[in-house]
Amino acid sequence: MTESKEKKPRIAGTSFSLYPMSDNFADLILNALKKVDSSKVWMKTDRVSTIVRGRIPHIFDVTQAAFLEIAKTGVHVVYSATFSVGCPGDTEGHVYMAEDDSVMNRGLIDDTKQKVSAKFALYPMGGGNYMDPIYEQIESMKSHGVEVNLTHYETMLDGPAQNIFTGLQSVLQAMEDAGSPHTVMTVTISANSPTKE
Fold first, then answer.
1. Which single residue of 9, 10, 60, 99 could bond 40 by disulfide (Cβ 3.0 to 4.6 Å)?
2. What pTM, to 2 d.p., does this model score?
3. Is residue 51 part of a domain?
């Protein structure tokens, strides 16, 4: 009997914050976090942000659903997140890595049609030739039906929220599949902004 050589997924995580531009921001944030199904991730909220850890599909599923829960109210809301895979400090919460890739919040996500503007930056760590993988992943975002524009320090994205989140998840997964020792990605997404430009 041969032992499977299939690579086990490493724990991924994100620290994200939601900023609704509304007097009842606290209720909007807390209600959104309560509404999402977080049963397949480790999640903890502190005074500044919420940390979500587990498999890549599940951390995107949970954070996207929380963001869209606020966005669908029509309030201007900003989502700010730092994603990480392969951090040497990730040692706890591996119980969630046993879960499959079937996500829990598809109903909340698919029911919300939302145009957004976003910026992301990718930081593959531990490799010498880091610019080529970055440019490859920027280019790959176009295949997700997203408008892509280069700017200083980050890449601008415009399009449906589902397409942007799917593309960003694919970017992080592609870096992991390529064997990046430690990948960090920063993301800012704005929905319902009164500013058109």
1. 99
2. 0.91
3. yes
CATH number at residue 47: 3.30.70.930
Domain boundaries, position 25: 12-88+108-191
Is residue 102 a part of any domain in this protein?
no
Burial of 176 (0-12, 13-18, 19+ CB in 10 A): middle
Whether 5 is covered by a domain: the verdict is: no
**Residue 157 structure tokens:** 């994205």
Burial of 90 (0-12, 13-18, 19+ CB in 10 A): middle
Give the count of domains, the chain.
1
